[in-house]
Design goal:
Layout: H1 2-20, E1 23-27, E2 33-40, E3 44-50, E4 53-60, E5 65-73, E6 77-78, H2 82-89, E7 101-112, E8 115-125, E9 128-143, E10 151-162, E11 179-190
Antiparallel strand pairs: 1-4, 1-11, 2-3, 2-11, 3-6, 4-5, 5-7, 7-8, 8-9, 9-10, 10-11
């Protein structure tokens, strides 16, 4: 009987440990959008997106911890204006011939109670890595009716960076803004 109780207790601990393990999610590119905005001489706002992106999310709901890795294909930048896209891809700005990808790797999920508040990590752009904190405007997990009730987690996140910290300084000398707003809307499917 003692052995049975020990085995039952061990099984319970093992089950708890398995449930507490982080789950892995693959980013759904059809429900994930990476965009940026930059002030254009105090008059308008230039916007563009990256059409190709991939990545993974690890999320441990019990521990309120996780990790995100998102890679952007910089050659897929799309402003809706082909000539502007060519300039964005040029050595003046993203230099995609030399640096075809950018990557964000998180190191911490910050919660306020049960609500995800922010995700901190490192952004690598033009082979320069800087810390970036994305504020969570929304975050939720749900059983997707389109994917046989598989769990999907995601949210809307934003950060503002100084682009010159990454060596993107085109136009600063004639008054173009250094500040760029990054917006990441991400959904990822549990694997």
């Amino acid at each position: 009987m003692r052995t049975s109780l020990f085995a039952l207790a061990a099984a319970g601990l093992f089950a708890t440990a398995v449930q507490a393990a982080p789950a892995t999610y693959a980013i759904d590119p059809t429900h994930t959008f990476a965009t940026f905005e930059i002030d254009h001489m105090g008059t308008t706002t230039n916007r563009a997106r990256f059409d190709k992106k991939q990545g993974t999310v690890e999320f441990d709901r019990e521990a309120k911890a996780g990790k995100v890795e998102v890679t952007l294909d910089m050659t897929s930048v799309n402003s809706g204006t082909p000539n502007f896209d060519k300039h964005l891809q040029s050595a003046d700005i993203f230099n995609v011939a030399k640096f075809p990808t950018a990557k964000f790797v998180s190191d911490k999920f910050v919660f306020d109670g049960d609500k995800l508040k922010e995700v901190t990590g490192q952004l690598t752009l033009l082979d320069k890595t800087q810390p970036v904190t994305f504020k969570a405007n929304k975050f939720n997990c749900y059983p997707s009716p389109m994917l046989q009730k598989r769990e999907v987690c995601g949210g809307d996140f934003e950060a503002t960076i100084d682009r010159t910290a990454f060596g993107v300084d085109y136009g600063v000398n004639f008054g173009a803004s250094k500040q760029v707003r990054l917006v990441l809307q991400i959904e990822a499917v549990k694997q």
